[in-house]
Amino acid sequence: MQTLWDHRYAQRMQRIKASAIRELLKLTEQPDVISFAGGLPAPEVFPIEEFKEACIRVLNEQGDFALQYGSTEGYLPLREMIARHTSRYGIQISAENVMITSGSQQALDLIGKVFINRGDRILVESPTYLGALQAWNTYGAEYVTVRTDDDGMVTEDIEGALRAGPKFIYVLPNFQNPMGVTISLERREQLVEMADRYGVPIVEDDPYGQLRFEGKHLPAVEVIDARTRVQNGHYTGNVIYLSTFSKILAPGIRLAWIIAPPEVIRKLVLAKQGTDLHTATFNQVVAYEVGRHGFLDQHVKKICQVYKERRDVMLEALEEHMPEGVTWTHPQGGLFLWLRLPEQCDATELFPAAVKNKVAYVPGESFHPNGGGKNTMRLNFSYPTPEKINEGIARLGKMLKEEICA
Ligand code: PMP
Questions:
Q1: DSSP strand pairing (152-153 vs 142-149)
Q2: In what residue span(s) does the Aminotransferase class I/classII large domain sit (predicted)?
Q3: Ligand 1 centroid to residue 173 C-alpha, Å
Q4: Are 195 and 232 in contact (CB under 8 A)?
Q5: Which atom, in ligand 1's list, is nearest to the CA of 255?
Q6: What is the DSSP secondary-structure string of 14-70?
Q7: Distance 105 CA to ligand 1 centre (A)
Q8: Nearest atom, ligand 1, residue 206 CA
Q9: Cα(181)–Cα(262) distance, integer angstroms
């Protein structure tokens, strides 16, 4: 049906297309399909009782405040809690360096709004987080890509990419979405050194860093950068760091945070005012009440136990059911792993056969801003139960054997 709006869409909407992937994923909503396609946390680990108690306490004790408009920067005690928590990892920051956003997705959008002019190049890993590309496409971003292997971003590629004059570098240091890989310490140091040498700042997106099941915690890129950049106790570095409560508490509360130098925070705050004035006061106060007495540390341990079991089940099932020539990453944390099919295979073309076999994944091509990755797919292990993971990987293995070994 035609309306008067038809010819009035802004030019920027030309870059925003309903993705083929989303259309494909609609097919996976049938209840008998086992889906490894989403990126949802396990609802079994949502701290429902803690939220219930906190909601009642907040409404009883500070309902007037929690239901009122709040400041754009965010609820101060929550920002202070994040600053204290971050300081444990060796970077001295204060609430002045912290702002609260409505999910990290909003943080990515605000970064686009504040920094990206049409035609600006952003240096990204290939593959990288699809949501960042979606946010930045609206602002007319172009992408220079570097490869990602099992040790994360390939630093050999960075120097060439930096010569293309990117506005900033976007990195996913831990258990990357989509591959599940982590950037090694040596590569983090090289990245900071090269970014510094070429004078290009870094956006570090780290929703999964705390969800490490094994191996040693690695310092954030921001922490490495900060070693040389703290003045009068304030972080003045080259990195904007993002993290979120989505994976350590619950995504439905839409709460995340940005850590950045105070001048950058001020610009982001101005941009946020026009977007939503501030993040929901009630959600911030409740999350603070849930988290304030060290609850998060014990809760993160519980999430890690559940996800580690699911990852192990998926790795074992892959060993058992995958045909020869298929390989996969072995993530030490997070929510995802990455499957590579033989070179000639196309995971998008295979998708209807997967759905016919009642199993779903995300074809890897969509995570590559400049193409490539046709023979790859992303699998999520946090949401399906171990039984579903076993059954789903068996179905996927059967489909792949039929299709690629035929
Ligand atoms: N960045 C990355 C790398 C993600 O994987 C996600 C969520 N899947 C986000 C940002 C957005 O997270 P949220 O908006 O829920 O905080």
A1: antiparallel
A2: 47-396
A3: 13
A4: no
A5: 16
A6: GG----HHHHHHHGGGSTTSEE----PPPGGG--HHHHHHHHHHHHHHHHHHHTS--
A7: 6
A8: 3
A9: 31
Contacts 24+ apart (CB under 8 A), 225-232: 225/192, 225/195, 225/196, 226/90, 226/91, 226/92, 230/91, 230/92
> Is 101 a pocket residue for ligand 1 (Cβ < 6 Å)?
no
Please say if the pLDDT value at position 115 is more than 70: yes
CB atoms within 10 A of CB 358: 17
Q: Which of 104, 247, 276 to mutate to test ligand 1, by most ligand atoms within 8 A of the CB atom?
A: 104
b/e burial code for range 293-303 (CB count within 10 A of at least 16 → b): eeebeebbeeb
- Per-residue pLDDT at 86: 86
Q: Where residue 27 falls among pLDDT bands split at 50, 70, 90?
A: confident
pLDDT digits (tens, 9 = 90+) for 358-396: 999 999 999 999 999 999 999 999 999 999 999 999 999
Q: Is 103 in the pocket of ligand 1 (CB under 6 A)?
A: yes
Strands in 150-299 per DSSP E: 152-153, 168-171, 202-205, 230-231, 234-235, 239-244, 256-259
39 lines ligand 1 (CB under 6 A): yes
Please work out whether the CB of residue 102 comes within 6 Å of at least one atom of ligand 1. Answer: no
**CA 207–ligand 1 middle distance (angstroms):** 6
AA letter at 183: I
Give residue 246 CA to ligand 1 midpoint distance, Å: 8
**Predicted local confidence at residue 220, as pLDDT:** 95
Q: How confident is the model at residue 22 (pLDDT cuts 50, 70, 90)?
A: confident
* Percent of residues, the chain, with pLDDT higher than 70: 96
Q: How far is the CA of 205 from the centre of ligand 1 (A)?
A: 8
Return the bridge partners of 204, or none: 171, 241
